[in-house]
Specification:
Layout (H helix, E strand, L loop, with lengths): L2 H40 L10 H5 L28 E5 L2 E4 L3 E3 H4 E5 L3 H8 L2 E4 L8 E4 H12 L6 E2 L3 E6 L2 E4 H15 L1 H5 L3 E8 L3 E4 L5 E6 L6 E10 L5 E20 L14 E7 L15 E3 L14 E3 L8 E7 L4 E8 L8 E6 L5 E6 L4 E3 L2
Parallel strand pairs: 1-7, 2-8, 18-22
Antiparallel strand pairs: 1-4, 3-5, 6-8, 9-11, 10-14, 12-13, 13-14, 14-15, 16-17, 18-19, 19-20, 20-21, 21-22
């Protein structure tokens, strides 16, 4: 072989070794990255409580906490005959206390359940708890179902599972019903003034979180109202208060408040221009949440109807106006007082007017129109 051919052969072998090395390096890097990904998922870095894929694919590999020494199927307490008509409901959120989540921490029995069997099942270890002091973590419904089947065998079939479960290690959990009860207490205290007036209040259509976690025993949860409670939808906030008295977090909520009161209403149809009298008014029970304007409180006057009101309909402030001292079309006495002379003639009011107001009147003798000041219901004076 010539020296030139040998040189070319060596170059080809060098390139081959170089590319083989590159391929092996890439394969090693892929293996390392896959291991890092598995570690990150196991540490729940994305706030998703990790249930290994092996549980989803097969129940032969146990990567959770150890199962009880005795098989659930072999325990006579856990035979299918002991199941009866009962179910196990898994909560959407729960506080766990130990390093491993126990079934009894995230579930409760429903129906006529065998107490001894539930006591046994409640102690079933499931998976590793989230770390103390970390944010709440969640597990999807699919992974939850796989874990339950892995550890509970046939008893997984009587479990009622939510779409997801959120867990926190330590601290306090406020459920949706507890949050609604907190809001109701705060709102009812604010409604005390209405109760003193004989009103009846009803709270409904709560819009509150499904749950709120509080970090630990040194923190508390309070309700802050945005404004004084009124009929209709009212907003408020849940405040997490730290040990130093500072607000750590705010969570919004709202509730619809019905306030039932007796309000003035038309005893019979009222027409525009009618003078309102006691005989025209009755009282009916109405929900202030559905009254469109400020209701008349039944005081003041005398009033005249500004716009028509149907029988039995509430009387709003906008329906009424102060009855004028002199009304358009009234016959009044027009007077003029000079230094040494006093004149008076009959006149017709061409406009409404209150005491002290200026209106136009027509002299019934001369048929001339003049401006006059209203003195009382029968007298106007030229000024």
């Amino acid at each position: 072989m010539t020296s030139s051919a040998a040189h070319q052969h060596i170059q080809r072998e060098s390139r081959f070794v170089f590319w083989v090395g590159r391929v092996l390096a890439c394969m090693a890097l892929a293996v390392i990255l896959a291991g890092v990904a598995r570690h990150v998922r196991a540490q729940a870095g994305s706030d998703q409580l990790f249930v290994p894929d092996s549980i989803l694919a097969s129940q032969e590999v146990d990567t959770f906490a150890s199962t009880p020494e005795a098989s659930l199927e072999s325990d006579p307490l856990m035979s299918g005959q002991a199941q009866g008509e009962w179910r196990i409901t898994i909560h959407e959120a729960a506080v766990v206390n130990g390093p491993v989540v126990l079934l009894g921490e995230i579930a409760e029995p429903l129906g006529e359940y065998p107490a001894d069997l539930w006591a046994e099942l409640a102690g079933t270890p499931l998976w590793e708890s989230p770390a103390l002091g970390e944010r709440p973590m969640s597990i999807t419904g699919i992974r939850l179902a796989a874990a339950l089947h892995h550890y509970m065998n046939e008893y997984a079939d009587i479990c009622l599972t939510p779409d997801s479960v959120t867990l926190q290690r330590g601290g306090t959990l406020y459920t949706e019903s507890e949050l609604a009860a907190m809001a109701a207490r705060a709102i009812n205290q604010n409604l005390a003034g209405w109760a003193a007036q004989g009103a009846e209040a009803e709270l409904r259509e709560y819009q509150v979180p499904s749950h709120i976690f509080v970090a630990d025993a040194t923190s508390s949860l309070e309700v802050e109202l945005s404004n004084d409670v009124e009929a209709g939808r009212n907003s408020f906030k849940y405040l997490e208060i730290g040990i130093d008295g500072e607000v750590q977090r705010r969570v919004s909520g709202s509730v619809f408040v019905d306030i039932w009161v007796q309000v003035p209403a038309a005893e019979h149809p009222l027409n525009r221009g009618d003078t309102l009298t006691v005989a025209d008014v009755t009282f009916v029970r109405k929900n202030l949440a559905y009254l469109r304007d400020d209701i008349w409180d039944g005081t003041g006057g005398p009033f005249r109807v500004r716009s028509s009101v149907g029988e039995g309909q509430p009387i709003y402030e906008s329906h009424l106006e102060i009855l004028p001292v002199v009304q358009e079309g009234d016959t009044v006495t027009l007077v003029w007082q000079g230094q040494n002379i006093f004149l008076s003639v009959p006149a017709e009011a061409l406009a409404d007017g209150g005491a002290g107001e200026t209106i136009t009147v027509r002299n019934l003798q001369s048929d001339q129109e003049v401006l006059a000041r209203v003195k009382d219901s029968q007298t106007v004076e030229v000024f």
